[in-house]
Amino acid sequence: MKIAKLYLISILALNNGLSFSMDGKTELLANQSDNTNADSASNILNEASMPEELAKHCRAWIAENKELLEEVIPLRESISLKPIDIISAHSKFTTKLANHGNASTWNAALPIEFDGKKYFVKFAGPVNLAYTNLHSQKDSQGNYYGWHQLPDFPTDLKPVRTYQTISQAAHSAILNRAIEQNHIQDKFFVPKTWLVRFRGNKSDLPSDENCFIIQEAALDFEPVRDRNTKTISPRLQSISKETFAAAIIAIKGGTLWDIGSNLQVHKQADQFAQTDLEQPNNENAENFFQKNEAKRQHNVITGLEGFAFLCRDALKEGIVVKTQCEYFKELLLKDPEFGNNDQLRKAVNY
Fold first, then answer.
1. Buried b or exposed e, range 109-138, using 16+ CB within 10 angstroms
2. pLDDT tens for residues 229-243?
3. Phi then psi for 270, rounded to 5 degrees?
4. Do the Cβ atoms of 58 and 50 come closer than 8 Å?
5. Backbone angles phi, psi at 94, to 5 degrees
6. Does residue 218 sit in helix, strand or coil?
């Protein structure tokens, strides 16, 4: 058991860098909301319809893949938080989804195609669900568990309702809102993202056990930072300083905490994009969505720092982005909410 726990710690440490209803109808929840507060999950996840033709294809896909969905998206009561069981669940998850072209290491990102248009089916994997569970339960001292406490946490913890998958729709909503309100659609792109309920009833609260994401594939974009080599794309030097400035709006408005690893750049146009919209897996489920203001600010700071590190590394690699990076720095240091943050002031000292 000790070996299993230590192995799981290494998995979690690596990862931390980071409906078909009973009556046969599909519940589809929109990625938009109208005049709602960002911290209201029920408002952000307002019901609305995805395009009817897409909804029809989605229903057919669910029916065809219902057995797969039932197997890889477990009901909460069937989840075990014992380290050895989490390791086993992760192994089975990755093996099963490898046969479906999964494009993600820790979660599901399954490529699908409807009428010649490409999409991804996305949902959270076992390790992320375990991690957010640990950060949603308290020990005997009233402190929340974390991955570093795995050797000591009780193996009989009961899983709670989590929102890792759901968070992608919520972040899509607030990011879209920020983009539209600031008129930066030509500078920052987020693909259309829908939350789909595939099991349970309409009255059931959307959660990781009954929903998945459908997201348009952003085929015209490529990663700014290569996931394997960690080098920066030369395309960055063709991006204007105004688009660098738009990244600040997007990070703040969409709480893009992991933009340093997941930012994408258009292959030809002057535009950034973000497709990975999942919240950090160390979020307390009780605080969904963004009920903890200190944690929200921490996530924004992490995102702004990540973008600053992209600038730093691009300059080190000789990519000609000094003007853009200096403009980003200038605007960030003038930001009324985060400009005086010591962590960020240090990050832009490139």
1. bbebeeeeeebbbbbbbbbbbbbbbbbbbe
2. 999 999 999 999 999
3. -90, 80
4. yes
5. -70, -40
6. coil
